[in-house]
């Protein structure tokens, strides 16, 4: 009888604890999601009306004129294309190149592997600074060049560590069987290692894809040609340099004077720049979690 009472009391405490956790998580989700929702509803609200305030849950005067004004500027269309291109190309090259280097690092027979690992770890915490980096980019001929988004980002040592941790868990017998069949190291990497590494590849692709999509710094520092600037750099200029006034000039006739303001265009531009990557992320999240856990547990 006493044991049953203690069991029921413990279960009740767990029930209360679980409900408190649920409420806390819901509160955190609401705090996280509401700013995004606020930007979205105000971007769909008539600009002059939004300046009055009081819009918290849904648009008071629904309109799509803000988005018409955004896409009326050819600069944002060009920037969007640059961002898509650098995200797709940069992510593919980064994943392949980093995986190839990581595969070499995972081999015990690599001469000087510990020295290379030590040097790589140092680069994770120390850098030469922005000015030497800028001079290097310029001397390599990457300034004002689309390849400035691709070449410097081909390799990341943190991603290499994740790859190495995964590759070390693969059975050595697979490589031995491939070598008996006459495959060299590169063929083993392409035909055996890559097909077995899709979870970790999806994880690194998600890491780097989000980085490429959100990166505005390279476009600000290393690109002067507006036709080569990504959409995040475009958004940076809209918000930080108030270039939205120029967008009002490019808006279709009659819109700017009636419904569109610089603030409403900024909000609409934010939605346009962040929505695509937000839609892709949920589809890769399961691979992200699985890939991060692989190699972390032994046995």
Describe the protein in words.
The protein is an all-alpha fold. The protein folds into 2 domains: 2-43; 65-293, Orthogonal Bundle (MetI-like fold), CATH 1.10.3720.10. Helices cover 72% and strands 0% of the residues. The chain is built from 15 helices and no strands. The longest helix is centred in the N-terminal third of the chain and has 42 residues, at 2-43. The two termini are 42 Å apart. Mean pLDDT is 78; it is low at 1-7 and 291-299.
Summarize the entry for a quick read:
With 299 residues, the protein is mainly α.
Total count of domains: 2
Rg computed from alpha carbons, rounded to a whole number of angstroms: 25 Å
Strand content of the residues, in percent?
under 5%
Number of helices: 15
* CATH architect. name of the largest domain: Orthogonal Bundle
pLDDT below 50 for ≥5 consecutive residues: which ranges?
A: 1-7, 291-299
* Overall pLDDT metric: 78
Helix content: over 70%
Within CATH, the superfamily of the largest domain carries the name: MetI-like
Compute the number of strand runs: 0
Can you summarize the main beta sheet?
Answer: none
Output the structural class: mainly alpha
Give keywords.
299 residues; globular; MetI-like fold; disordered N terminus; mainly alpha; disordered C terminus
